[in-house]
Design a protein that fits this description.
12 strands, five-stranded mixed β-sheet, single chain, 1 helix
Length: about 150
């Protein structure tokens, strides 16, 4: 039995095209989401956002839009929308959404935009110990959630 050389790129996942990519507030969460939408060529395609792996933090963290079809491909124009929380995959300046055919879009996202999408509405729920200040806000260190309920029995 002969051993054949295989590609390091899995053939089951492929880059796919997208139509829109933007960063949106997550509402009650403390981070934003990358939301990517488009139209896929198969009804049974599974679309995901996969952050690239880096040794050091880049200016723009690459996030690939990939799709996989299991078993038999069922051709049909199918809209999709996928989300990725921006709690880890984040470059110094933002993110880069990468699709098929050389498609690429850089989105500038600051540290405050990522962790504070509601312009400070959620900062009242945070208390940071041993942190640094940035723009008048305390960042870094250990972050704890403060219970906002008032104890009437005290």
């Amino acid at each position: 039995m002969a051993v054949t050389e295989q590609s390091n790129t899995p053939s089951s996942w492929r880059l796919i095209r997208y139509e829109d990519a933007h960063v949106e507030s997550s509402g009650s969460q403390f981070f934003s989401y990358l939301i990517v939408s488009g139209v896929a060529a198969y009804a049974n395609i599974r679309v995901e956002l996969m952050p690239l792996v880096y040794i050091d933090v880049p200016d723009y963290w690459g996030i690939e839009v990939v799709g996989s079809v299991s078993f038999v491909a069922l051709p049909a124009i199918t809209p999709y929308e996928v989300r990725l929380p921006l709690d880890r995959a984040m470059g110094r300046k933002g993110i880069e959404v990468i699709g098929a055919d050389g498609q690429s879009m850089r989105i500038d996202v600051t540290f405050e935009d990522r962790l504070n999408p509601d312009d400070g509405a959620n900062l009242d729920l945070l208390h940071t110990k041993s942190g640094r200040t940035l723009g008048g806000r305390t960042l870094g260190g250990r972050t704890e959630r403060i219970d906002t309920a008032i104890d009437d029995e005290a």
